[in-house]
Design goal:
The protein is α+β, with helices and mostly antiparallel strands. It has helices at residues 17-22, 43-56, 106-114, 132-138, 145-148, 185-192, 205-211, 215-218, 255-263, 275-283, 305-318, 332-338, 340-343, 345-350, 372-386, 414-431, 450-454, 456-469, 503-514; strands at 36-38, 60-63, 78-81, 89-92, 97-101, 118-119, 155-162, 167-171, 226-234, 236-237, 241-249, 269-274, 294-302, 323-329, 390-395, 400-405. The chain has a six-stranded antiparallel β-sheet with strand order 14-11-13-12-15-16. The longest helix is centred in the C-terminal third of the chain and has 18 residues, at 414-431. The structure holds flavin-adenine dinucleotide (FAD).
């Protein structure tokens, strides 16, 4: 007699120490040794793996390039690397759609679409390596999200493998899926969700309430509800003309007037760099005028060159009384030169010395745009009080600022200052009606903050969503919903308490971080030196 429930065979796993070490870190602050690693090459292999995990209650950690900052791509379960086996990509210019496997990067999509005059408008700075699966799972965004929103708006359908190992397709307009909220849920969500221009924290109950589509729950779910194997991206025509301006200010407070003025001119990006990060960029060889407190990089896309140049002129004239430095660009190559300062920012931080590490702890806060000045001043004040140096940069036009801490990790007790700052900045975000994550997601880092941000009732809804999709808690446990022993500043990749791994792999992981080479297949890091 045959059984209806066949226990699946153990899948091929890499369980040796070197492979586990190669996947113990992503971008961000953690080093956690996984139990093993799997690199499925097809939906069939992934399906078999997930069925085995469901049968054996083995936690799985979905993973793309590993460039996510919040620790959703590392964990003690089996890491499932989807960056290598899902590379199919087709572009349909007539329907303005790209169909991309989970491993396909933003850069690959745009390279295929560009010749057809099309693009995927949200532009994560990590586009060279961020995978389609990773972007969907974090609801990624970029400088141009100011005008085009996060990736959420650009997803037509997802092919997923659910927590029981069943593959299926989820379409925009396809309905609610397995979670059926109570009728009063909308009211609760409306009252408790941040009113920010961007949010990648929690499950997107606000977008779900609006659309009734489970697609909106899956987008930004950080590998906790399903594996994503294929994405249908909506594309749009590239606007022909672009111009921009770099505006330097002597005081950070000028942002309170300058940013709303610029937003009224309908820019496609307004990016901020503060004086600390400017000093690192200068060390990397970019000449800037002395005495700037911050720089705003502004981009305007228009239908004609005249319109693009005209609006740059409006911006320069309108902010003349506030600016200490102005440099304009009237075409795309000029703009790229102007933006070099922005593209050098993250690598400059990653290259800091081993004693002064750039750590992404309070790194992704977003507040209502009218509270931006208060937020920036509040973060600076809290950092001074906690004795932690910080750099600020990011998407000022969205009220969204990346803040990296720069502690001396060789100084005993450095974690106390960072921990106090984490707490103070979270309180500030909550007070200002903000979110702890504008685009990177909660991961393990922020999971334990969500009750403070959304309140106990919304937290209960998040748990309902998780139970509806993953009752066995196989998919990325501890991400979005915190583990019972949540402790955000343990399992760090820096400091004396870091879990030991082979020196050569630790050095390769560090090099990968310093050079932003996240596209490197991580299996290759496990190769012995010289092979
Ligand atoms: C230098 C640098 C700059 C960055 N700039 C930006 C930026 O401008 N905007 C931005 O939004 N982010 C940025 N990031 C963060 C990061 O690149 C994005 O979060 C990106 O979307 C992550 O993609 P990934 O393929 O690396 O995913 P990973 O880091 O591997 O995973 C991220 C999360 O998604 C889940 N996941 C990944 N793939 C799948 C899948 N196929 N199915 C289910 N779950 C999955 C993981 O479990 C994890 O929780 C930056 C990072 C770096 C290092």
């Amino acid at each position: 007699m045959s059984s209806l429930h066949i226990v699946t065979a153990t899948p091929a796993l890499l369980a040796d120490d070197r492979s586990r070490a190669a996947y113990s870190e992503g971008a961000g602050i953690y080093r956690i040794l996984p139990r093993a690693v799997a690199v499925p090459g097809s939906v069939a292999e992934l399906t078999a793996l997930v069925r085995w995990a469901a049968d054996t209650r083995t936690p799985l950690v979905p993973r793309g390039a590993g460039s996510g900052m919040a620790g959703g791509n590392v964990g003690r379960g089996v890491i499932v690397d989807l960056s290598q086996g899902f590379h199919a990509l087709t572009v349909d210019p007539a329907r303005r759609l790209a169909r991309a496997g989970a491993s396909v990067t933003w850069a690959e999509i745009n390279a295929a679409a560009r010749g057809l005059g099309l693009r995927l408008p949200p532009d994560p700075s990590s586009g060279a390596f961020a995978t389609s699966g990773g972007m969907v799972s974090t609801n990624a965004a970029g400088p141009r999200s100011l005008r085009y929103g996060s990736v959420r708006q650009w997803i037509e359908s997802l092919e997923i493998v659910d927590a029981s190992g069943e593959p299926r397709t989820v379409h925009r307009g396809g309905g609610a899926g397995p979670w059926h909220p109570a009728p009063d849920t909308r009211h609760l969500v409306d009252g408790h969700f941040p009113r920010t221009r961007k949010n990648s924290s929690g499950y997107a109950l606000d977008a779900f309430a609006e659309s009734g589509d489970e697609l909106d729950l899956l987008i930004g779910s950080e590998g906790t509800l399903a594996f994503i194997t294929q994405i249908e991206w909506r594309l749009e025509p590239i606007l022909p003309d672009v111009a921009g301006v770099a505006l330097g200010f002597g005081e950070l407070e000028a942002l309170s007037d300058a940013v709303p003025y610029l937003l009224a001119l309908n820019p496609s990006a307004v990016e901020l760099l503060d004086r600390t990060i400017l000093s690192f960029v200068e060390e990397a060889g970019v000449a800037l005028p002395a005495g700037l407190a911050c720089l705003l990089l502004v981009e305007f896309e228009r239908e004609t060159a005249m319109a693009a140049r005209g609006v740059v002129g409006d911006a320069v004239r309108g902010l003349k009384h506030l600016t200490a430095h102005v440099e304009t660009a009237v075409d795309r190559p000029g703009l790229e030169r102007l933006w070099k300062v922005r593209t050098l920012a993250s690598p400059a931080l990653a290259r800091l010395s081993e004693t002064r590490r750039s750590l992404q702890v309070i790194e992704d806060g977003c507040v209502p745009i009218e509270r931006l000045g208060e937020y920036v001043a509040g973060v600076r004040g809290a950092a001074d009080r906690c004795g932690v140096q910080v750099v600020l940069f990011g998407h000022a036009g969205d009220g969204h600022v990346h803040v990296n801490t720069l502690p001396d990790v060789t100084r005993p007790g450095w974690e106390d200052g960072v921990s106090a700052l984490f707490d103070a900045v979270t309180a500030l975000q909550v007070r200002l009606g903000g979110t702890p994550s504008g685009e990177h997601g909660d991961g393990r880092l922020r999971a334990g903050l969500l009750e403070r941000v959304f309140g106990a009732q919304v937290m209960a809804l998040f748990r309902q969503v998780k139970r509806a999709y993953d009752p066995g808690e196989v998919l990325n446990p501890g991400v979005i919903l915190p583990a019972a022993d949540w402790a955000p500043l343990v399992d760090l990749k820096v400091g004396a308490a870091a879990t030991p791994i082979a020196d050569d792999i630790a050095a390769r992981l560090r090099q990968l971080e310093r050079t932003a080479s996240w596209a490197t297949p991580k299996t290759s890091l496990a190769d012995s030196p010289g092979t």
